[in-house]
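To close the chapter, one final illustration. This time we ask the reader to focus less on the individual chains and more on the assembly as a whole: which components sit near each other, and how the overall shape emerges from the parts.
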Amino acid sequence: MRSKLLLTLLIGLTVTFIFRLFQIQIIDSKYTLDAANNAQRMQKIFAPRGIIFDRDSNLLAMNQAAYDIEVTTSLLNSLDTSRLSKLIGVNEKKIKSSLIKAQRYSPYRPSSLIRGLTAQDFAKIQEEISFYPGISMRRRTFRKYSNSASGSAIGYVGEVNDYILSKKPEYKLGDYIGIAGIEASYEKYLRGKDGIQYITVDNLNRDKGPFQEGKYDIDPVPGKNIMTTLDSRLQEYGKLLMSGKRGSIVAISPESGEILTLLSSPDYNPNLLVGRHRSKNYNLLYLDSINKPLFHRGLLAVYPPGSPFKIINALIALEEETIKPSTNFNCIDGYHYGELHIGCHCESGLVNLRKSISHSCNNYHCQVFKKTLDKFQSTAKGLDEWEKHVRSFGFGNYLGVDINSGRKGFVPNSDFYNNYYQNKRWKAPTIVSLAIGQGELGVTPLQLSNMTAIIANRGHWFIPHIVKSIEGTMIDSLKYLTPMRTTIKKKHFDTVIKGMEDVFKIGTAKESRLNGIRIAGKTGTAENPHGQDHSIFIAFAPVNSPKIAIAVIIENGYWGSRWAAPIASLMIEKYINDTIARTDLEERMISGSLANEYGVESVEIKLPHN
Amino acid sequence: MRNDSNLFGRIDKITLILYYFLILFGWVNLHATVNASSNLYHWNWSNEAGRQLIFIGLSNILIFIFLLIDPRIYEFLAIPVYGIAIIFLICVLFFGAEVGGSKSWLDIASFRFQPSELAKLGTILMVAKLLSIRNVNLSVWKDRWIPFGSILLPILLIGLQPDAGSAIVFLGLTFVLNREGLPSYFIQLGIGSIILSIFALAFKTNTILIIILFFYIIALFIQRIQNRVTLKGLIRHRISFLMIIAIIWSRFVNFFFNELLLPHHQVRIKLLLGQLEDTSAIGYQTTQSLIAIGSGGITGKGYMKGTQTKFNFVPEQATDYIFCTVGEEWGFLGSSIVLICFSLLIGRIIVLSNLQKNSFARIFGFGLASLLFMHFAINIGMTLGLMPVIGIPLPFFSYGGTSIMAFTAMLFIFLRMDSYRWETL
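The assembled structure is written out below.
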């Protein structure tokens, strides 16, 4: 039977086929996975970032829709690149190179052509773009900062870079991360948790709707909303007053340590660091070595504190009982010790503690400083005791602020001078400039403002912080609620505060007097090796129940009462009265510019792309 | 039950059931392939599923007509039908519509058909006619030329279209010749030459020479020991002749592969031989086909729920790759049943043809079984990634009017012949 050959082959073949089916359908699970890879696309749903509010629930940072234009090259039949270029406003060369990149990445998957079009820009081209086959869009969210004055305090977000990717495995390429200010410090709360969406796609990678009605999708968990302690009204007013000037304003609520104002000037508009021009703008800001806009002066700049530091020295002397409030020193045109002479602007004569502060008598404080140090068996021992007192005011160390950028500043001790003067032959007069806040001392405006709050509280303080509540829950960290104590007894503060009040009445800042509110303040004129003296002022008000403690530093602003004192008093007036009666002074401050002093045309940050 | 007086009652029920099962299940799968892609389902007569339903309807009219025709007429119609088919095959080379690089389609009025399908009917009729002549003896060469020629002529013409797949199918008729007396070594030689061809493509020329010489010396050695052939006799022995043929053949295969085959055919063969890494475009069909079938699992993803089918991952799925739909949506169970049904249908035809008293009917039936076998083997083999990509349809399943009607016609001509067997009793 010759027909058996075909029958045998038929049976053999059928058995072979069934074996093969068994192998690929039952044994080998690879194909099931491949099928899923073919037909499902896992898509990340970006969790909306937490919103940032100021202390009165005004929006500081929010999210806005943005659009990425994507291209799937396999779907492009012919693309009029010049027309597309005109439509989306990107130059033709760039489109062409993006197309080549996209083709290389995958002709079947969408890859990005332009990123971060705003909703307005997108609306303009939305209709026409739908006529281009292979061009699609993807929605994502971008940050929008409503209060341009809070720039560097709030910070900004940016796409993670290779460094972050290697350090933090929980971030994936294309994710956003807070880079500066609150955005960076509170990243773990603001970030939220991205969701996953499974979508079905066909052979040309076209979206065919959710996979199994979204049964396996994971919803994103939005980031937590944060209420800051910032007062955006004050923040904006401060920015206005600072126009044309470099420097910083830091205001703290002494009752709680809440930071009301954290200004650095000149500042950038954080919206410049959002969207399609982000990297271009970032580079311009980064490379601006004259204005240093990315450098927050309030947190990072270290200045000699100048005359306000006399208050600390006076308090230390009172605590060490080297002087009494009634102690007098005769000021004859400043402090003389051997060949050393430190000039003084106070009206010469007998000066007591109160007057020494209101009139900022250099002689008085140099004498006090020397007397304090000499109380101990050695100057070195004296200086180390002095250092302990100074450090209890938060100087020379990080304050523990909830913003992860800051400087320690510097408080010298005996080791430092033993090192500095190799022969160890240094005495109180050698380092007497510490008495008037000069010399090796270095403080940040935030520390200076905190010092003011300590004086306002008569000896205790709360660690300054910038976040009030997270998602409606007040911060309950003991760290910010437990009062810190200085080494100075409460009773010693009264005299110095009286002297500080006199500063406005009869003293160095009487031009900045504010009727109706009792303010205590202290001017400062910090000599610095880089040019004209810095104008410094600290103040708190009202004297009996302080609501605001403020420190203002205007770089190269000549002397304290010229810029810093009026600005501080205006800030206090704004915060307490909400209206400004002294419009002439206000006008003078706003229009006053130190551009000539800095040798630049303009102090403002102007960028070509916004 | 066979002795029903009714003509239709004498038709073989098993074949009939298998035929209707395959053609309806085939359509059900075609329907899923075509209509599941669109999000909004709506019936459409003008797409493949709709038109296939019309072709199935027309096939049923054909069945009715063929059952009414006296089967004895085919012996007389064999030469005219074959002649017409050959004329069509020549015409298509000149007037054919070019689809996908080959001229396989002839447009007559608003109707488009594939002459190669008609040639299948014509050729098995012709072979049946030639071999059923009394005293034909295929063990001698003089009786071989005409049957050989009648098969090679359509192969040549179809090869010129070029439609390699359809041409190869006709080689299946060697089984018919073998059954009717052609010595088995023709088939052995055929299979041997296929193996040698694979070797020739897989190895370098020198390696092939060494392999051939190695087998030649072993064969000579065996001959010398078993049959005590003299050394002189060995050189003139047919083994030596075979060796020379083998060397020439291996050189020819290389020449054919490199010079005559189109690049995309070369790539397909190279892929199958594992000489090329299966990356994207070329191996895409096979990869996607395996993914679709492989992801079906035991019971499949459910009717119209196959993701690969729905979203068109497999190219040509309505025609050559229709079996993917079965694999994906009906799983191992469904596809095994389909394979077994095909196997049973072909086996049943072989069994029935063996029962024929009339040698014309017997040869015709066996010819039909051979053609169906070739289609089954090549199409499923290709879909399962066991054979190179040769585009031929799966009978009764693939979309295509000419194919479905040609196979229906051949099947029912044979069933009518089979039923006539009882009429003559």
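Chain A has a mean pLDDT of 86. Chain A touches chain B through 37 residues (CB under 8 Å). With these observations in hand, you are ready for the problems at the end of the chapter.
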